[in-house]
Design goal:
Blueprint lengths: L2 H17 L1 H11 L4 H15 L8 H15 L4 H19 L15 H19 L9 H16 L4 H18 L23 H18 L1
Bound molecules: adenosine-5'-diphosphate and magnesium ion (MG) (2 copies).
One magnesium ion binds next to loops.
């Protein structure tokens, strides 16, 4: 992953949040407060507007800046959670970058194994802040299987696009698997058993984020 790919990824996320805003809000209206689409849209629109003027010179800096913007622009649970995910991801990626592996666009570039490590740091950031475990019906239920699939692919020698495609498939599967779960974290947990039978909004936005990475890396 180089700086251009990191920038293209967050732009693709912004486009996906625009396209799927109503769907995310609809999901959040069933088990939350009907603002997840607006939250994600507002956050990534701010990122998409700010990044072209930003002088972030490494992929890690782009993603860390994305996280900081999400924290400052998005309220609710998802702003700080995604904010800390992107900040942790970016910081880890900067620490792992491989000097001299620059692509045609310049800057430094991280390989699939470094990206896997950075994604693990991102997930750890969400866990640290939200204290949710797999099965609690949150974004973790998409993020954790996505990371596992990404890492398994990367270790087997897949390139970034292949690893990201495997991660996106796993995230979508994890997202669908939240439907029968009873929420144990976040607003949806207030509903108790009535949260069963609805797909989690945050797991859905996480799947969009991984699909955006797969699409960007394949382009
Ligand atoms: P809010 O619930 O504050 O309105 P959003 O609607 O934007 O915030 O985001 C809700 C999503 O945040 C949930 O669908 C869930 O995936 C995620 N979420 C909530 N609490 C947690 C937590 N403690 N850990 C991980 N994810 C969480
Ligand atoms: Mg909400
Ligand atoms: Mg809210």
């Amino acid at each position: 992953m180089d700086t251009a790919l990191a920038r293209a990824w967050v732009q693709a996320i912004a486009a996906a949040m625009d396209t799927h805003q109503d769907r995310l809000t609809q999901l959040d209206s069933a088990i939350g407060d009907a603002d997840h689409g607006a939250n994600m849209h507002r956050g990534f629109a701010a990122v998409a507007a700010a990044l072209p003027q930003d002088d972030a010179a490494t992929p890690g800096a782009v993603l860390a800046r994305t996280g900081s913007l999400l924290i400052s622009v998005v309220g609710g649970a998802s702003g700080p959670l995604y904010g800390s995910a992107f900040r942790s991801l970016g910081t880890a990626l900067d620490a792992a970058e491989v000097p001299g592996a620059a692509g045609p666009t310049g800057g430094t570039a991280a390989g699939p194994e470094q990206v896997a490590g950075a994604l693990a740091a991102g997930l750890a950031g969400v866990r640290r802040l939200g204290a949710a475990a797999e099965g609690d019906k949150t974004m973790i239920d998409a993020f954790a299987p996505a990371l596992m699939a990404f890492r398994t692919s990367a270790e087997a020698g897949a390139d970034l696009a292949q690893a990201a495609a495997a991660a996106a498939d796993a995230a979508e599967q994890g997202m669908r698997a939240t439907t029968p779960m009873q929420a144990r974290k976040g607003r949806a947990s207030y509903l108790g058993a009535r949260s069963v039978g609805h797909q989690d909004p945050g797991a859905t936005s996480t799947a969009l984020i991984f699909r955006a990475l797969a699409d960007t890396a394949a382009a």
